[in-house]
Predict the 3D structure of the following.
Amino acid sequence: MWQRLVRLACFFAFAAAILPGQDPGQFEAGQIDMKQRVALEDDMLNTRVQHLSEDQVYGLVKLDKQHPDVLEKVLHDDGVDFDLNSEIEKKMRKAGANDEILQAIWAAGPTARNFKGATLNSATGAPLTSTYKEAMGYKTLEQTSDPDTKIRMAMEFAQTFPKSELLSYVFTQAAAAFQQKGDYLNAVKTGEKSVELDPDNVYSLLIVATAVSEPSVVSKASDSAKALQEAQTDAQRALDLSPKLAAWPSETPDQFAARKSGLESTAHAALGSVAMQQDKPDQAIEEFNKAIALSQPPKASLYFRLGEVYSNTGKKQEAIGAFSKAAELGKGTVIETYANQSLKELRQN
């Protein structure tokens, strides 16, 4: 506490110095008056909060932005209790903050502080550091739901920050958006860019494996065997990396276990799709059943694919059971329609 008092006292003594010939009652445009300085000092010295609030930081910036080195030290030593966003950025710029001060505010915030300066962790737990502009760009991208907007923002990010440590995960966001649109070819291309930057990016490995193993993609491939091999390799690598996955700081053990199971389920589903197209029905059935066991809740699409394998191998009752479950879980979706059609055909034969 005494160290904070001494540091802040020195800060205010330095910041409040009046230039020769300057009227003690007047300050440079944009700075606050002496009463406000004293009030802010008292607030900061008497407050019991652990980190500086948004209002306190705003006051510090407005107090004397001409000495960013002093301000940055205060921010670094005390931290702030908020994360910088676009609205707070506008507010701080209005008070006089430049890019260096804004970077210091971002680095002092809970997200960057808790990740030891990182914006996020990679799938295997490596901290990914960034500037505040990169961090806010990624956060906005991640929260965007419209796939076309997400793709556009990801490409703009790549052009603006071509060396960013976040770029592999930016491409993951874009690949997932292409996949959401049903544009599997671009999902594969973008996912492969992501994996080139981070070979341990499990999310992109699974997007590529899932998209490449889509029958519509395999049928258009110049070398279908090679495409299926790529899907198999990527899915298996994702499973091999599974033990190295790290929990997010905000995750409970149960949430982490559920996320990990979901990723493993996706990998087994891709392997099942590969095996089905390689005419290996027993292996396909095994992989789809593993995918179903790991998925919570079970997905209608997995039961539908399992039903297809059973149907193609003449296992009528097993196929009826799988398609019935697919129709139940996929109620109100196109999967219910396809599953009911398959059930009708099976029951007529």
The CA atoms of residues 153 and 282 lie 43 Å apart.
